Amino acid sequence: MFSVVIPLYNKEISVKETLYSVLNQSFSDFEVIIVNDGSTDKSLEKVNEIADPRLRIINKKNGGVSSARNLGIKEANEDWIAFLDGDDFWKQDHLSTVANLIKEFPEDLAFCTSFVKNTDDAEEKKASINSVEIINDYFERATKKHFFWTSVVVLKKEIFNEIGFFNEKLALGEDLDVWSRVGRKYRIIKSNNITAIYNKTAENKATLREYSYEKSFLSTINLSGKTGNERKYLKKLLLVRLYWCAKVKNWSIGRRIIQKLININ
Hints:
Shape: globular
Structural class: alpha/beta
CATH topology of the largest domain: Spore Coat Polysaccharide Biosynthesis Protein SpsA, Chain A
Largest sheet: 9 strands, mixed
Distance between the termini: 46 Å
Number of domains: 2
CATH class of the largest domain: Alpha Beta
Helix content: 25-40%
């Protein structure tokens, strides 16, 4: 039923725990596609220590997370693509929660659950609300809170024939680019059940590396012609990054963002 796509680049500390969080799922109808994006540490050795027929490793030259995810999607044997980064974790009921949503909403193609950060209070991680949201306006919901996070997203594989794949020129916010394209075309079914943990303290996080404006989703944003909640959402992304620029005194990127904000038709 599910093809779990995991891009892997230098995650030797966390990747085994990530994989065990998948292999220990209560729902067992899945394959795991690990796309090794030219790792230079012991990530691949750690993966090879796990003997499980559901694991499939694809090795490629380093090309970035977008190219790794795209290859995983194209190699998937199942109809549903579940994404998981190589340092995040699922709770045992993640796939079963999504499978139940798919059964309840058979006409829909985009699903997600809820998550917490591993830096959040332990009691909050235990909280689990068994309710479902039908999100007809992705941008309205995403403006309030970033909910459609990669490691809880599940999409029907055929979606990518309609909206396209991950932009391989982007290394930051490449997921937001795809989710925006999903949100323009499809409604999203969201479980409020917390089934995943975002590992904020993992090694080699993109957010810990130097910010490259040219390789970010923000560089592709054009507010001209955008209206309604999509315009509000994109403007908020720009303003949040502008605040960061002011905080770290990165005037080069700040000027580019200001230029986008003032050139609104």
